[in-house]
Amino acid sequence: MKDYYGVLGVPRTATEAEIKKAYRKLARELHPDVAGPDGEERFKEVAAAYDVLGNADKRAQYDRGVDPRAASGSAGGAQGFGFEDIFETFFGGGQQRRGPASRVQRGGDTLVHEDVTLEEAVFGVARQFTVDLADECATCHGTCCAPGTSPQQCRQCNGTGQLQRVARSLLGNVMTTSPCPTCGGYGTTIATPCTECSGRGRTHARHTMNVDIPAGVETGTRIRMPQVGDAGIAGGPKGDVYVEIRQKAHKVFERRGDDLHCTLEVPMTAAALGTVLALATFDGEQAVEVAPGTHSGTTVKLKGLGVGKLQRPGRGDLFVHLDVLTPAELTEEQEALLRQLATLRNEEMPEANLTPIGHGVFARLRDAFMGR
Q: Do 108 and 233 share a domain, yes or no?
């Protein structure tokens, strides 16, 4: 536990008056005008010690072995003037700004959304869109002043952008600084604003832009178009435009990363005998070979027919999942032929054959879904 008595240089039997006297003496020695920025950390320790020992209740807790600052997580004040108030008075809560603030600011960023089809995500696409943006005022060129005029030095702060005031504390009168309320801390005022932009230095207009959407984008992908966004304030640089992609779902193909998946129905006889089926893809008609004896859940991979890889060469693959169709309605002739086939294969009264886990049709479907 921190030795607050040692920090202030007083014995544990010190009276309230002795503690206050020791604190005032150290605080004057550590004032930034005397000790400079090197005394900042030491001043924090002294102020924290007085925050505890200068308050009767907190001092009683501390003497019982409990640090009230650590227990409460706060630095509540003594005598109505807390540690944070003291530190703010001396050091301004951190590094103080010197001189007037600049009116020049970077323009804001703009976000637009673009919907793309799955095919456009596969190959990429060039798009045109419109967006409302802030432009530099053509009359005042961002100065915010009427032509022939310029910002004038603030009379209240004399161009410093800051005002000083005297604050009373335990140490006596302490000088503090704050932004000038008249000029907002800029040090200048605009006596004659530009009438075209009402003194804002910017106007708004509708813009048409072109963007190249690369292959491989997906929902959430953002394309950055640097320095074409809102004009900056007072001649500051332009912001960026971000195009966020939203990919539409496709009625046939499903995207999983860089790969595409689809389901192709195969007649039972074609699956048994084997065949070649035509599949319409984004790359045109492709032949899908169905091997003799194909089961439902079999997957055929068409290499390189998937989605283009974002900012990388190559494309993913197209996985075709085969679904063998069993006829539900048969003519008498078809039924007779199937019964004849069943007889030839000794399958009129087939026995149930259990398949080990991991080898059946459901396992094949699982493996196809996982891309194995």
A: yes
Report DSSP letters for 223-262, one per residue: EEETT-SSPPBTTPPP--EEEEEEEPP-SS-EEETTEEEE
Q: What angle do CA 9, 1, 14 make, to 5 degrees?
A: 30
Task: Domain of residue 30: give its range.
Answer: 4-91
Q: Is residue 34 part of a domain?
A: yes
Instruction: Confirm if 232 and 150 have CB atoms less than 8 A apart.
Output: no
Same domain, 209 and 235: yes
Domain count within the chain? 3
| 44-53: burial string, b at 16+ Cβ within 10 Å, e else | bebbbbbbbb
pLDDT 10s digit of each residue in the chain, 372 long? Answer: 688 888 889 998 889 888 888 888 888 777 655 655 666 778 888 888 888 888 888 888 888 777 777 655 444 443 444 554 455 545 544 445 567 888 888 999 999 999 999 999 999 999 999 999 999 999 999 889 999 999 999 999 999 999 888 766 665 667 778 889 999 899 999 999 999 988 889 999 999 999 999 999 999 999 999 999 999 988 889 999 999 999 999 999 999 999 999 999 999 999 999 999 999 999 999 999 999 999 999 999 999 999 999 989 999 999 999 999 988 888 989 889 988 888 888 877 766 666 665 555 545 555 655 555
Q: What is the rounded CA–CA span in Å between residue 139 and residue 253?
A: 54
* Long-range contacts of the stretch 297-300 (C-beta < 8 A, 24+): 297/321, 297/322, 297/323, 297/361, 297/362, 297/364, 297/365, 297/368, 298/322, 298/364, 298/368, 299/364, 299/367, 299/368
Q: CATH number for the domain including 104?
A: 2.60.260.20
